[in-house]
Amino acid sequence: MSTKSKLTGKKKLGYCFGIFTESLCYNMFYTYYLTFLNEIVGIKPSYSSIIIFLSIAWDAVTDPIIGNYTDKPGVNKNRIMKISIVPLAVCFIAAWTSIGAGFSSQAPKIILYTVISMLIWIFYTMYSIPYYAIVAEITEDYDERTAIRSLSSLLNAACVGLGNILPALVPTVAILLGKKYESNSYAVIAAIISILAVILGFICCKSLEGVYVPKPLAEGDPKPKLSIISTFKSFGSILRLKPTKWFLLFVFFYLAMSSMIQSNLTYMVIDCIGMEYDTGIVIVILSLIVSMAITVPIVEKLAKKKDRRTACLIFLSGIFVFEILIKVIGLDFTVGSFKIMCVLSPVALGIANGTFWTLFYSMGYDLVELDEFKTGERKESAITALPQFIQKFGSAFGILMAGQLLSLYGYDSSADVAGKESLFTKVTDEGIINGMENISTIIPAIILGVSIICLFVYPMTRKRFDALMVQLDKKRKGEEYSTEGFEKLL
């Protein structure tokens, strides 16, 4: 395997366009689905969060199975991606239709949207795991992996923007559709996002032709099959790697923090900051994506100068302090007549997300070579799937906590008439407003603090990775090797 990739600049950009397919759907779902189920379908917040938790948890269960399968010789990761794109788009549109709003009881609504959501995440996994895993097969170079993920993260800032700003146009779309169809305004936005996802997903797959070569199936070997037993064996060897547990804990708590804030954005804008939804959410999302886009190249530069772990620690520690300050000052703080937190609060999340998504996958790639050193096998997809498995549970946990806390603080919109975007009205109960503010500030800050501690203990550094690669190269050539310089990884 070459240490440099075969990706030309054009093909690299084409590959990175693939981030739109997963990130557009991901961001619209995580930011607005809790609100959609609460306000449009008319499901109680405690139940809505359970729907999301169950669907994402189910997806987390399928992650290792799909990851292990796509690592097998004879399986074409690019083909798996192609197969999943259209079904993902169809299910995504279905998830945002308001058909469930017509049911009189909660149970059929819960069942309907749980099933549809589960289908979304199965096809999402079929696309995203091969998409991210392919980079570890194309290049082993430490900095090139960071550079590819950095370009992808930069484009991801645009995904975050489109995935969040387009749904913010729901009230406008509702007016255009007229009263009879206004409750399906989200479905219209979902259709636009799905069309973009399909087009850019196929561009990504096309760019990988001639660059990615599937692992060949040896003559006489059986065709690869989905196997739960082999999945457990594969993941068992990965979990025995010393850095794995700290990396996974870091991922879990970070995603719990970010998804909690993201799922509460609508309530933060209207009830905590005190702005009109139409203007407030646009300012919040623009601040989020601009700060994320600015952060990505800075993080990449620091990661290349130091290493990924150090860069991540520096930026996330700053955000930890920033979130506490926001709570102390208050989300309704104004400068003159301008509600400054509609800029500062999303900037904190933008910097954190820009850091995490630039470095997260490339940090995981380092485990591929460590596992190969110990076992003699390469498990790119399995090692991509395991953090995704934890990522989904972390994200689902964050949204579950947000929904449960909303109910605990006393918020309940299920008694309202569902299906009208005008239901986004300001809460007047100070206790509920304070609770919503906690969900966007101090509670996520505490969770982020735990994530930072796990990252601090995580032992994979550039120096140790470089030492690992020297000895791994010797082992591949059948030469005498040692563990000098990376003992703490073992």
Tell me what the structure shows:
The protein starts with 8 loop residues before the first helix and ends in a 14-residue tail after the last helix. 75% of the residues lie in helices and 0% in strands. About 2% of the residues have low confidence. It contains 18 helices and no strands. The longest helix is centred in the last third of the chain and has 35 residues. The chain has one domain: Growth Hormone, Chain: A, CATH 1.20.1250.20. It has 490 residues and is mainly α.
In short:
75% of the residues lie in helices and 0% in strands. With 490 residues, it is mostly helical. It has one domain: Growth Hormone, Chain: A (Up-down Bundle), CATH 1.20.1250.20.
CATH architecture: Up-down Bundle
The computed structural class is mainly alpha
* Chain-averaged pLDDT: 87
The CATH class turns out to be: Mainly Alpha
Shape: globular
> How much helical structure, as a percent, in the residues?
over 70%
How many discrete domains? 1
Parts with pLDDT < 50 across at least 5 consecutive residues: 416-423
- Counting DSSP H or I runs of 4 or more residues, the number of helices is 18
User: How would you characterize the largest beta sheet?
Assistant: none
Fold-level CATH name = Growth Hormone, Chain: A
Compute the separation of the termini in Å.
24 Å
Order of helices and strands: HHHHHHHHHHHHHHHHHH
- Radius of gyration, taken over Cα atoms and rounded to an integer in Å: 22 Å
Provide the β-strand percentage band.
Answer: under 5%
| Secondary structure: number of strands | 0
Please name the fourth-level CATH homologous superfamily: MFS general substrate transporter like domains
